[in-house]
Amino acid sequence: MIGAVLLYAGAAIITVWGIAHIVPVKSVVSGFGQISRDNRLIITMEWIAEGLTLCFIGLLVLFVTLLAGTANPASKIVYWASAAMLVVMAILTASTGARTSVIPIKICPAVKTAVAILFILGAVL
Predict the structure, then answer these.
(1) 54-108: per-residue pLDDT in tens?
(2) Terminal-residue alpha carbon distance, the chain
(3) Which candidate, 107, 92, 74, 83, places its Cα nearest to that of 11?
(4) Using CA of residue 99, residue 114, residue 79, residue 64, what is the dihedral sign?
(5) Which domain range does residue 94 map to?
(6) What is the pTM of this model?
(7) For the chain, how many structural domains are there in total?
């Protein structure tokens, strides 16, 4: 029971965090000032891609938990793989975007790591 609660909480947090990446894309891109059209498109693509990836991870965990339960061996693979991907993304963000002065990006590695921990705990409890 507690494992499912941790999984649902992590799924909700990372899905909302993904949406929070997608919503401000226009203002994020405009914050770069005068850049080439190609660079605007690349930055737009990358911000949306990260947001969609985070939403996918959260929704995958949510639906696997709802439909297959927490004890299913396939569910465990999803939980561990999702946690691993979030840790990889946290390391990437920590070594790149989090080194900027933008506060939401600075806390992004902590959010991803916290959700990865929720997924791992949810998988074992």
Answers:
(1) 999 999 999 999 999 999 999 999 999 999 999 999 999 999 999 988 898 999 9
(2) 8
(3) 83
(4) negative
(5) 2-124
(6) 0.96
(7) 1
* Cβ burial 80-92 (10 Å sphere, 16+ → b, else e): eebbebbbebbee
Dihedral pair phi/psi, residue 101, rounded to 5°: -90, 5
Q: What is the pLDDT of residues 2-47, one digit of tens each?
A: 999 999 999 999 999 999 999 999 999 999 999 999 999 999 999 9
**In angstroms, rounded to a whole number, what is the distance separating the alpha carbons of residues 51 and 38?**
20
* Contact (CB, 8 A) for 78 and 46: no
